[in-house]
Amino acid sequence: MIMAFSGPCGRLVGAALLCIGLTLPVAAQQVVTPDTFIRAETDRMFSDIAGLAGGVNKFLHFRGPTPLDMQTVIRMNRDTLYSGAVIDTSQGATITFPEIPDGRYASILIIDNDHYTPKTIYEPGTHEIPADTPFMFAAVRIHLLNPNDPEEVALVNALQDQFVITAKAATPLPAFDWDTASLDALRAQYEAEAASLVNFNGMMGPRGQVNEETRHLAAASAWGLFPEWDASYLNEFPGLGTDRCFTATYAVPENGAFWSITMYGATGFIEYENSVLNSANTVLNADGGFTAFFGSTELCGDVPNRLDTPEGWNFMMRIYKPGPSVLDGSYRLPEIVPAG
């Protein structure tokens, strides 16, 4: 639920999508290897999410902006409200996408049990869910224009309830039987490798259309993300401290929906409330770009477009329905430099 759904267990409290002890050890666990990592990681996501939703063919809805103490996975955002469901497609299944009254962004990303994404849905209507694997995942995202407006949140909640799954079977998921120690170790290794990536291009998409040599990095560090033509993700790991204010000036990326920047700590979780810049809350410069500041109020002063910086700070720019300059790689993030 860049979505992305991914991250170490034990992080959550309360009712959220992942890692609250649902994945319990069972007999004869299979050791996870590089060849089986993606399936094992996806099995864990499916098992935990279906458990929290109350079974297959049922949505688990996020009803408000991601609470800091209920982050289900690393690198979540607060610009969309998420809904997720594991669906039994063995005998056929459909999903209904409602009319969106105000033209806001909404989507359904379909993910199979091997973390391929055969289909993305943007249009209202009833859509057949591909049955590439016996169980498939539907990730719904709806743009939240103002997370601090209760009426706005209520409107999106009402839209969430209008997404409907119809399935002809409801077979329980098989028990999760992967060894979590080896799974967690590989994930940590792959997350470290992914930290040097500029983007995830080529790692997501339909079976047969992705880079099989690198897509495990996306499964480890950003489970559930879009193919780059649906959304582009630009990572920034500046390796800078929290003892001074930093700044950079950005061009607004070409997009057909919206863009956002979300700040994370060293472990990939949002640590402060003031962690998001997006197309709805950013003050633009006269030329249409924007200048961002990274650091506390004490260090940066009372400036617009400021994000608090936790230890090991890093961020991700998300660009929904990216334009040509983003897709061809000519759009680049600028260098971050000391302010003043």
UniProtKB/TrEMBL annotation:
<dbReference type="Pfam" id="PF06742">
    <property type="entry name" value="DUF1214"/>
</dbReference>
<feature type="domain" description="DUF1254">
    <location>
        <begin position="56"/>
        <end position="112"/>
    </location>
</feature>
<dbReference type="InterPro" id="IPR010621">
    <property type="entry name" value="DUF1214"/>
</dbReference>
<protein>
    <submittedName>
        <fullName>DUF1254 domain-containing protein</fullName>
    </submittedName>
</protein>
<dbReference type="InterPro" id="IPR010679">
    <property type="entry name" value="DUF1254"/>
</dbReference>
<feature type="signal peptide">
    <location>
        <begin position="1"/>
        <end position="28"/>
    </location>
</feature>
<dbReference type="Pfam" id="PF06863">
    <property type="entry name" value="DUF1254"/>
</dbReference>
<keyword id="KW-0732">Signal</keyword>
<feature type="domain" description="DUF1214">
    <location>
        <begin position="251"/>
        <end position="323"/>
    </location>
</feature>
